[in-house]
Each structure stands twice: as structure tokens, then as C-alpha cells.
Amino acid sequence: MKVGIIGLPQTGKKTLFQVLTGSTVPEQAGGAAKPLPGTAAIIDDRFERLVKLYQPKKEAPARIDLVLLPKMEQDTISRGDIFRDISDVDALCHVVRAFADESIYHSAGSVEPIRDVEMVNAELVMHDQIFVEKRIERLAASVKKIKDERQVKELELMKRLQAHLEGEQPLRLFPITEEEDLLIRSYPLITRKELILVFNVGEDELGDTGLLDRVGERCRAGKMEAMIVSAKVEAEIALLDSEAERRAFLEDLGIAESALQMLTKLCLQALGRVSFFTVGKDEVRQWLVRAGSPAPVAAGVIHSDLQKGFIRAEVMKYDELMAHGSEAELKKAGKLYVQGKDYIVVDGDILNIRFNV
Asked: Which residues form the YchF C-terminal domain (predicted)?
């Protein structure tokens, strides 16, 4: 699961990337900026509690791949570099400046977060529109020479996509069948990707939900998620020595979750992923699987052999395990469930896969 971080210049996306990944972003030594990859461990309170319960030799939280993409300036937009980079990610995190600071310039001359959201969205829609128009031209010319059924279907689909985009609507909102999806899955259509808006505010605005209220209808209409963060505050928190100090700092500011917790939760939600766990004295590990997946598919996330030789899954429910305090007490209560191939894995399940290869 790879999430690309985009934004206009001076939005705080570099600071946020450094906070999320714990890495340092080097200054570009001339030439065009390149995508910068990083990873971040998903922070999940359930995982922390399972580690505390089992005291394993090894702990392995799930991780999310993040890519800091070049800032969206006129030259990167006109060259098209930024769009090639965006096409390689699963979802987009658009960092939007919403903090006031006269010492930091804004490329548009003033801080207007909703305007910036609409401007970037328009650029993304325009990119897809140009691609679709060119594809229509090629398909129309090809169909005139040889009437290939697949190309005829794709041409008809492309014309519908074109009409949708001309209405300034992202392709996330375009209804598409599985057969149609196969026709265009490999194409670099950016607005098909899930989009998360991260409004970077000042410290004094962290508890203010006014901005989220203002963009709420736009988000619902455009199938976007939104959150508020202060990258500056998060950077200060990251410098603290212990987790206890960081939690206390967040509590003092009235922040329920860190930026990483909020962002990864929205990413999992947007991309339709759920977490499940494997536990024991040797290791506690968190895994991610597509929502609605049957147990053998989840087993395959752990190892392909487990999916091939799947027999059954022994399932513990996280809340029930925490309520009883141990596996032994859970089993006494008859709360260890044996499930077959048709069982759909639920967020928070603890699985032990029985298999034979």
C-alpha cells in the first residue's frame, strides 16, 4: 500500500513526511526534484495492547509506504513529471496550507485552503482529460482500420469517461463494471485514486473544526477524506524522548490521535483495508488485507503456502481476548472459534492458520 504526498510549495508536506517516516529530507542538489520514498509503522492501540499481553521476542506492526512527491509548481505540471510519479501510488495525500505565517510565502499570494484544493483537483482532472482525449484519438484511428471488439468497447468507455471529466468530476465517482475496469486498470488515470486532504493548521487552530465543516460537503460529493494536523506541532512532539511524553503532549493540546494515527486510519479506510493479527511468545504481528477477504486470502498475506494448504482458521476476537485477559480464559469461555474457507476476516481478528502442504 503506497501513498503519495502531494501539495503546492510551502504547505508543510516535507515536515509532515519527516514526522511520519522519521527520516530527513535532503536538500535537492540542483536538477529536477525526485520522489522520496519512506515507510511508517501503523500505530494501532490494539497492537500495543497485544504486545503488552504476550511480551513477544519480536513485534512487527504493519507498515505503510509513503512517497514524498515533488511540489506542484508550474514547471513540474507543464513537464508532466509530477503526474508520472503520481500514477505509481495507490492513494494520494494532498497537504493543504491552512496556517497563517507572513514569513512564509504562498505561491498564490494568500492562504485560501479551499481554493488550493479546487486548483489541485482541477489539475488532476485536466491530466486525466488529456490522457483520455489522446486515447480516444488512437482508438478511433485503429478501429477504422480493424474493427477489434475489445477496442470498440474501450472506445465507447473512453467517450463516457471524457464526458464525465468534462463535467469536472474525478473518476473516483465514475461507476464502472469489473469488465470495464480490466480495460483501463493499467492506465495512469490519477483521479481514480483515493484522495485524502490534510489541512496543515497553526497550533491555535487544532481544536477548531470549522474548516472541516466547510469542506464536509465537498468531501462527500468528491469522495474525499479530510483531516486537520499541525505539522509544526507534530515535529515538536517527534523530538520528545519517550512515548509517554509524546502522549502527554498530545493530551495537553487536546489531540486525541497523532498525525500518523489519523492518516493511516484514513488511508486504510480509503483503500478498503482491515487489520488482523497473529500472536504468540515469539512474535506479535499486524497484517493488512482487503476488506471482505475470506480466511484463505488472509492466510496468503502471511505466506502463499498457508493459502495453498489452508485447512481452517482458529479465530479470537480482539475485544473478547482483552475482556478475558488471556487465551486460556478465552478458551474456557468457549470463545475460540474454528472457521473454514468461507469465513470473512473482520478488522481486529486474531488468526491462527492451520494448513497442510
From this structure: 275-356
Architecture of the CATH domain 2-41+63-109+193-270: 3-Layer(aba) Sandwich (3.40)
Q: Where in the chain is the domain with CATH 3.10.20.30?
A: 292-355
CATH entry 3.20.20.80 includes domain 292-355: no
* CA pair distance 201, 205, nearest whole angstrom: 6
In a structure prediction context, what are the per-residue pLDDT tens digits for the chain, which is 357 residues long?
Answer: 899 999 998 899 999 999 889 888 776 544 457 889 999 989 899 999 999 999 999 999 999 999 999 878 766 676 677 788 888 899 999 999 999 887 787 777 788 999 999 999 999 999 999 999 999 999 999 998 888 899 999 999 999 999 999 999 999 999 999 999 999 999 999 999 999 999 999 888 887 889 999 999 999 999 999 999 999 888 888 888 777 888 888 788 777 778 888 888 888 988 899 999 999 999 999 999 999 999 999 999 999 999 999 999 999 999 999 999 999 999 999 999 999 999 999 999 999 999 997
The DSSP result for 27-42, as a single string, is PP-SS----EEEEEEP
CATH superfamily of 121-191: Obg-related GTPase Ych/YyaF, coiled-coil domain (1.10.150.300)
Which parts of the chain are beta strand (E)? 2-6, 36-41, 58-60, 63-68, 91-97, 194-200, 224-229, 273-278, 283-290, 310-317, 337-339, 349-355
Outline which parts of the chain fall under CATH 3.40.50.300.
2-41+63-109+193-270
Tell me the whole-structure pTM to 2 decimals: 0.87
Under 8 Å CB-to-CB from 3, ≥6 apart: which residues? Answer: 64, 65, 66, 67, 89, 90, 91, 92, 93, 196, 267
